[in-house]
Write a structure and sequence with these properties.
With about 290 residues, this protein is an alpha+beta fold. The protein has helices spanning about 1-10, 20-40, 90-95, 95-100, 105-120, 125-130, 135-150, 165-180, 185-190, 205-215, and strands at about 60, 190-200, 200-205, 225-230, 235-245, 250-260, 265-270, 285. The protein is about 40% helix and about 20% strand. A hairpin with a 2-residue loop joins strand 6 and strand 7 (about 265-270). Helix 2 packs across helix 6.
């Protein structure tokens, strides 16, 4: 972001007002991001996820690195609604599933998809931003949509309950109570049959593996826990804290981001304690 702001400030004298300031800033930001993606990776080196005795994963994710984003930082982020070209609503465009799928696209296809299908710019505007042709943009968008369709199939599941609706709150509260009591049976009862438990890059599919994963990672000795609810990527999230043997303090065990489908949890993605500060959450809670 600092580099984008610096590039915009240095280039402001060349802004010719042929497009809106918003469009010009998106051009600056998009090209700066593309340059960074072409450069050497700046992502942190992956470490072993946990010291726990984990079951063998169903598979390894094609995307090895992803982080949650607090909903509170998204409030009022867009200065205007997407244009008529947009395919994805704001809620879908920030979901973990969508953000993960985006990373499977080549950088240029990723930029085209976001500018066209999320922000709603016309093909001619995107072509100008990327110093490309309309035909090239249209071709890149077609390929990007095909890849995304394979990775995020639509229509196979029930829709999630609306954000902060009574249905969503009821499901999250039931899951919270189950985690606080270390009630594995109650937790499993809220999961879909093909639930995905992810701890990037590890992925576990199905209730049986989910049970083994839960016991190995968060409920080893089935202690009493505390749970703090928050939101990430437009989805409910739970920060899990486990009480130490002396009962004097609760230690953080990571953040669980929930994907809801109908009245069930269809996916849980676990992130380690390093993400807690951006949500304003401590690593310890008093007992």
């Amino acid at each position: 972001m600092q580099e984008i702001l610096l590039a915009a400030w240095q280039g402001l004298g060349r802004f010719e007002r042929r497009a809106s300031l918003r469009t010009w800033l998106y051009r600056v930001a998009t090209n700066r991001c593309l340059n960074m993606l072409r450069a050497a990776s700046r992502r942190p080196r992956l470490e072993k996820p946990l010291d726990a005795d984990l079951p063998e994963p169903t598979r390894l994710s094609e995307v090895a690195w992803i982080e949650p984003y607090p909903d509170v930082l998204l409030e009022g982020l867009t200065d205007s609604p997407p244009g008529p070209e947009a395919r994805y609503e704001a809620r879908e465009a920030i979901s973990l599933t969508f953000v993960t799928a985006l990373q499977l696209l080549p950088p240029r296809q990723r930029a085209v998809l976001i500018l066209r299908d999320v922000l709603g710019y016309h093909a001619t505007e995107v072509a100008e931003m990327l110093d490309s042709s309309t035909e090239s943009v249209t071709s890149a968008l077609k390929r990007a949509r095909a890849t995304l369709a394979r990775k995020t199939p639509a229509g196979e599941r029930e829709q999630p309950p609306p954000p902060s609706s009574p249905a969503e709150q009821a499901l999250v509260e039931r899951l919270t109570r189950a985690f606080e009591a270390s009630d594995v049976d109650a937790i499993i009862g809220l999961l879909s049959e093909d639930v995905l438990f992810a701890m990037p890059p590890l992925e576990y599919v199905g209730r049986e593996l989910a049970t083994r994963f839960l016991i190995a990672v968060t409920l080893q000795q089935r202690p009493r826990n505390r749970v703090v609810a928050t939101r990430a990527n437009g989805q409910p999230a739970l920060a899990l804290y486990v009480r130490d043997p002396g009962g004097r303090v609760f230690h953080a065990m990571g953040l669980l981001v929930l994907t809801l489908t109908g009245d069930q949890v269809s996916a849980i993605t676990r992130f380690d304690n390093s993400v807690l500060p951006r949500f304003g959450l401590p690593r310890k809670l008093p007992g």
